[in-house]
Design brief:
heterodimer; A: mainly alpha; two-stranded antiparallel sheet; 13 helices; about 0% strand; disordered N terminus; B: alpha+beta; Rossmann fold; 2 domains; 9 helices; elongated
């Protein structure tokens, strides 16, 4: 036994030493890896948010700037019918954009998901390709198409469908066209991935049990792709509230959305506290929406 | 208890199925009778699943006719055919509970709520799943999903139930149990079952008749004992159970008795319809193969005992012929064994052999070999 014991002990000692080394080597990179990320988040996300939150409770100085004094005036101001109307219009336009994107996007996503592999990648890249161009430039493109002497009006007049150019640019309709165009991929991609994931034998089973293709769509395909519908709607609805450059360019002064209002408070009116209060409200609204989505998405995931 | 009738329920007439240049099913002719349990058996890619899917209506035939109850259903969609399918992966609707899954077909047919409740209830007790109405498919075990899938199909009272490897995903013990249950269910209901499997043991256990397919061709169709004891082709002899297949040429013909000459010996076998100098295959089941220390009249074939393999109740003995071919012999455990290395005389029970023409094989090789592609469901 004596001859056996010493190597065993030394083996044990070595093991504990290597364990210690492992523990050390585990803790150092953890700190090194997470540290910079936390720092980055603190500087670029947390700090500005806290800053916005703090000044939303302050007062505007006479010549711009911020005067420190705790009050809720900025939040109460939002109850002004003028601002409430802007919120209302924004939500209506965002809802309409979302519904339009969904109605156009679902068949599109369905066709891509059911296409042959080769065509699939072509169709997907057609969706993605415009994304590699600046969205501002693409929105300018719509101005050329929609303006009084633009492409559409020229075309309509030359074919004698209309006698006088139509007012298309600088309307809520133009804003919606721009929004739908810009946010369409955000709807199509989540829909595509949920339709693609759908097990085709489920549709065969539905057919087998007497359901015609249309019935099978309503009873099987649509319910099982609801998570994709939710994800797409959220990803279209939320940006629509904030994309001020689209309503600026295509809506002119006629269309003021929440995004424009906030931008104007910060840049034109120099009323940072009010702009901050509006931003906080928008953030809270977004968080609530995400919560609702997560609630539904979560329970849906449990089912599937 | 229903019996198999003479009425033809499903008929495939000259059915071809090509995917481009891939000939998946070639000139298939098959009649399935009312109340029959027919198994389509074959290796992966033999066209059995495609055949099932053509009966269900998920695949169109390239040419030929699918006839159900005397009616050509070639142009009919799956929802217009009076057949139902149990899918390989069950294909239960994940967003519906057990009750709604089973009721799916009846609600599509606009059956009254009260009748649906009653019929779903009957089905649940038939498959022994009472009390599981509210469960979601994700909360069920494989065997339970299987039962729900069967109930979902049977509740529609189909003329024919199509089953595509329904037990493939279950463990061995549960599979054996479900085999017996399915067989009983089929007998009890008297519905025609068309069952696809690659498991030859399963097919022998359950079927009234087995249709053996290979490379898109129907090799043989018949009752299990006939398929096992009188395989029509080398493929069937090889695929169903274990077989020793020896190449031989016919030395002389004397009535129903042939003298066949192997590379390393000769034997007397009884078979009709063969001519002198013809090349043949001799197929011998391992349980029919014997060996002895002394020569046996009618046999002149020697080999060396190589090894013994214990397989529970039986022992497999491998005997090597002088040309290197291994023969398998199975003995009941407890039989005295011959020590490895000993040279023995090999023979077999007279009724234990099947003599097969080789020209069927050549014919079969002349037809282009189909790439092994199983169409996934």
């Amino acid at each position: 036994m004596n001859t056996v014991t010493p190597p065993l002990v030394s083996f044990r000692a070595e093991a504990t030493a290597s364990e210690k080394r492992m523990a050390l080597s585990r803790s150092i990179p953890l700190f090194l890896m997470v540290g910079p990320v936390i720092l980055w988040l603190l500087i670029f996300v947390a700090a500005p948010l806290v800053y916005i939150l703090v000044i939303s409770f302050m007062k505007k100085g006479t010549y711009g700037g911020v005067v420190a004094s705790l009050n809720f005036q900025n939040y109460l101001r939002i109850y002004d019918p003028l601002y409430l109307k802007i919120f209302f219009v924004s939500i209506v336009i965002a809802l309409a954009t979302t519904v339009l994107c969904l109605v156009l996007g679902y068949p599109f996503a369905y066709i891509i998901a059911r296409a042959r592999d080769r065509n699939k990648s072509i169709l997907l890249s057609l969706i993605m390709l415009p994304f590699w161009t600046n969205s501002l430039i693409r929105t300018y493109g719509w101005i050329i198409l929609l303006r009084t002497n633009g492409t559409f009006n020229t075309l309509l007049q030359s074919t004698h469908l209309v006698f006088r150019p139509l007012q298309m640019l600088y309307t809520n309709g133009a804003v919606m066209v721009g929004m739908v165009y810009t946010l369409f991929p955000f709807m199509v991609l989540p829909l595509y991935s949920s339709i693609e994931k759908l097990d085709r034998s489920l549709l065969e089973a539905a057919n087998d049990l007497g359901a015609k293709p249309r019935r099978a769509f309503w009873r099987v395909t649509l319910p099982l792709t609801v998570p994709g519908v939710f994800a797409g709607c959220i990803q279209v609805f939320i940006p629509t509230l904030g994309y001020f450059f689209i309503s600026d360019l295509l809506g002119g002064g006629n269309s003021v959305l929440v995004g424009n209002l906030i931008r104007n408070q910060f840049l034109a009116a120099r009323d940072w506290p009010f702009g901050a209060a509006l931003s906080i409200l928008l953030i809270v609204f977004t968080i609530v929406l995400m919560r609702v989505y997560k609630h539904f998405g979560g329970s849906l995931e449990n089912i599937t | 208890m229903a019996q198999v009738s003479d009425k033809v329920m499903v008929e495939l007439r000259n059915v071809d199925k090509f995917y481009g240049a891939n000939k998946v099913v070639k000139n298939l002719n098959l009649q399935i009778r009312e109340g029959e349990f027919l198994t389509m058996l074959g290796p992966s890619g033999c066209g059995k699943t495609t055949t099932l899917r053509m009966i269900a209506g998920f695949e169109a035939v390239t040419s030929g006719a699918v006839i159900i109850e005397g009616e050509n259903v070639g142009n009919k969609a799956p929802y217009q055919r009076n057949v139902n399918t149990v899918f390989q992966n069950y294909a239960l609707f994940p967003h519906m509970n057990v009750y709604d899954n089973i009721a799916f077909g009846l609600t599509e047919k606009k059956v009254k709520k009260e009748e649906i409740r009653q019929r779903v209830g009957e089905m649940l007790s038939l498959v022994q799943m009472d009390g599981y109405e509210k469960r979601m498919p994700s909360q069920l075990s494989g065997g339970q999903k299987q039962r729900v899938a069967i109930a979902r199909a049977l509740v529609n009272r189909p003329k024919v139930l199509l089953l595509d490897e329904p037990l493939g995903a279950l463990d061995l013990k549960l599979r054996k149990q479900m085999q017996v249950e399915l067989k009983h269910l089929q007998r009890q209901l008297g519905i025609t079952f068309v069952y696809v499997t690659h498991d030859q043991e399963e097919s022998l256990t359950m079927s009234d008749r087995i249709a053996v397919m290979n490379n898109g061709i129907l090799e043989q169709i018949g009752p299990p004992d006939k398929i096992y004891n009188q395989p029509a082709t080398k493929f069937v002899a090889d695929f169903i159970g274990e077989s020793n297949i020896l190449e031989a040429s016919v030395g002389s013909v004397d009535g129903d008795s042939l003298n066949v000459i192997f590379e390393t010996g000769s034997a007397e076998v009884s078979a009709a319809g063969f001519s002198q100098d013809e090349m043949v295959y001799i197929s011998v089941r391992p349980e029919k193969l014997k060996c002895s220390a002394a020569a046996v009249p009618g046999f002149n074939l020697r080999g060396t005992v190589k090894e013994h393999i214990y397989v529970g109740s039986i022992i497999k003995t491998i005997i090597e012929l002088p040309n290197g071919q291994d023969l398998k012999m199975s003995l009941l455990a407890g039989t005295p064994l011959i020590a490895p290395g000993e040279v023995v005389w090999v023979y077999w029970e007279k009724d234990g052999t099947v003599v097969l023409h080789t020209h069927e094989e050549t014919l079969y090789n002349l037809i282009e070999q189909v790439p092994k592609i199983e169409v996934s469901v």
